[in-house]
Design brief:
Number of helices: 9
Helix content: 25-40%
Shape: globular
Structural class: alpha/beta
Distance between the termini: 53 Å
Strand content: 15-25%
Order of helices and strands: EHEEHEHEHHEEEHEHEEHH
Radius of gyration: 19 Å
Strand order of the largest sheet: 3-2-1-4-5
Number of strands: 11
Length: 250
């Protein structure tokens, strides 16, 4: 790798992490990489359908990817083109800090950025979720749709699910055999959660698109960037998400 590596990111949250921590290294990113807002790099397609030929022509020293967001055939094609690919795996908050440190060091960082230390400190100071930070004395039960038509929810072993658990949210489908199960909306309503958590990504739930499917149940509209991204947004995620959740369950 050259002294100033050329990096392509196929993961929006990692794009933000590298751009903020090591300005000037990124030469390519996906069409969905919208943070920082002034990022000026070659766009290489989507996370699920990157233009591997475009990436190869950029001659990057490293492509950073994620085992969940990116498809193995695309990553294999890049490797066969002689491109080094680093694949992250993030299933919980501690994984996020470990993998962010690994990515940034692979990109040439000589030390951890301040935002990463601050984010880790913020998460380590959260109150024990067992004391019920949202609903005093008990956990706050929830269903967490991430898509509709068909309805899909957070199941087991997900980063977003761990984020919510650490904020005192008991995902009623956390024990499901699948990570992102399809569940009929009638079943979701019948589960009678304390709150329906509706993030704005990957499906863009809004006040007019989502809550109406759960009459009589409070809905919390959450920032998908704070719920699902692992990057600089981690530092403010507990405050941002906690405020939205508290407002919904009161």
């Amino acid at each position: 790798m050259s002294s100033v590596p050329r990096v392509v990111s196929l993961v929006p949250s990692l794009t933000e992490a590298v751009a903020v921590s090591l300005p000037g290294l990124l030469v390519g990113a996906t069409d969905w990489c919208d943070h920082p807002g002034d990022l000026d790099v070659v766009r290489v397609g989507g996370t699920k359908n990157p233009k591997t030929d475009v990436i190869a022509r950029l001659a990057p020293d490293l492509v950073i990817a994620n085992e969940e967001e990116n498809r193995e055939p695309d990553l294999t094609a890049l490797r066969e083109a002689g491109v080094e690919v680093l694949v992250t795996e993030v299933r919980d908050v501690p994984d996020a800090f470990t993998e962010l440190d690994r990515v940034l060091r692979a990109c040439g960082a000589r030390s951890r950025p301040r935002w990463l230390d601050e984010a880790e400190s913020v998460w380590s100071r959260l109150p024990d979720p067992a004391v019920g930070p949202l609903t005093p004395g008990r956990s706050t039960t929830a269903v967490v749709p991430i898509w509709r038509r068909p309805w899909m929810v957070l199941g087991r072993d997900t980063f977003a699910g761990d984020v919510l658990a650490r904020l005192g949210v008991d995902n009623l489908y956390a024990g499901h055999a699948e990570r992102y199960p399809r569940v009929p909306v009638e079943e979701l309503r019948a589960a009678a959660p304390d709150v329906v958590v509706l993030p704005d990504e990957p499906y863009r739930f809004t006040a007019d698109d989502g809550p109406e499917a759960f009459p009589g149940l409070p809905s919390a509209l959450l920032s998908g960037r704070h719920l699902t991204w692992y990057g600089p947004s981690l530092a403010e995620a507990p405050q941002v998400l906690g405020a939205a959740l508290r407002a919904a369950v009161r």
